[in-house]
Design a protein that fits this description.
mainly beta, eight-stranded mixed beta sheet, six-stranded antiparallel beta sheet, TerD, Tellurium resistance
Length: 249
């Protein structure tokens, strides 16, 4: 998980990393603006399951204080010689509910969305060959997991992974959020939701399409101030949207 948390430590450059556990080697790569794509299939991984995980860490007031201190020292470098300011401790920022979702378009032209909102959890063994594990509303920092059936990868035309905030204030800028694509052979392709604007409520994270016989993920990280319909318009899905609610059972 070292590569995942490198996004949670602000200011570090993204790196490719290898982790070894019990003699097994797992490969992790972080998609960035300079290196925005990665293959998800090929070399014996054309079948099985692609897993999409959502993780986040809410920033505490201490995080904001450190960021403020760095910005102030850049503007006034001589302040580094002043005595440290004593601040009282205050409670950290409250957790918020981030939701994972996927817009899909199949080769037969059918389009739709897999999301917890409205109970549209999908089907792994039949169209759309996507299944959402369910909704985590307990602020644990681990949201839903999306499972993609690679045995039917040829049925996909395009998949758009996105994250949205259904409940609570729009606070992408108050959290460090990472979406991890775990391939069938155990490679981790990580996308950090960096540089969020204030008041954004949804973020298009990754577009998955076929390229030269492989499924390839391309980093998007494009924020919108609305919900799914605005993501739809941004990518031309052409669906009709209505107001939905989550199943609280």
């Amino acid at each position: 998980m070292a590569s995942l948390w490198s996004y949670f430590r602000r200011g570090r450059a993204p790196k490719q990393k290898f982790d070894t556990v019990g003699g097994m080697s797992s490969y992790a790569v972080e998609l960035t603006k300079r290196s925005p794509t990665a293959p998800l299939t090929g070399q014996g991984t054309d079948t099985g399951t692609l897993r999409v995980d959502l993780s986040w860490r809410m920033r505490t007031n201490t995080d904001f204080d450190r960021s403020h201190d760095r910005a102030r020292l850049l503007r006034h470098p001589l302040e580094i010689f002043k005595p440290a300011e004593i601040r009282g401790h205050s409670q950290g920022v409250a957790s918020i509910d981030f939701d994972l979702a996927c817009l899909y378009e199949l080769k037969d032209g059918s389009r739709g969305v897999v999301q917890s909102l409205g109970g549209l959890l999908g089907d792994f063994n039949g169209p759309p060959y996507l299944k959402l594990s369910g909704d985590d509303r307990f602020g644990t920092g681990s949201g839903e997991t999306l499972y993609v059936n690679l045995d039917n990868a040829e049925e996909f035309k395009r998949l758009l992974i996105f994250v949205y905030i259904y409940d609570g204030a729009p606070m992408f800028d108050r959290a460090d959020v990472v979406v991890t694509l775990v391939t069938a052979d155990g490679r981790n392709v990580e996308i950090g939701l960096t540089d969020p604007p204030p008041q954004a409520r949804a973020c298009a994270v990754a577009l998955i399409e076929h390229h030269k016989g492989q499924l390839v993920a391309r980093r998007e990280v494009k924020y919108v101030y609305g919900f799914q319909s605005e993501i739809d318009r941004l990518y031309g899905w052409g669906m009709s949207w209505g107001r939905g609610v989550k199943d609280r059972a």
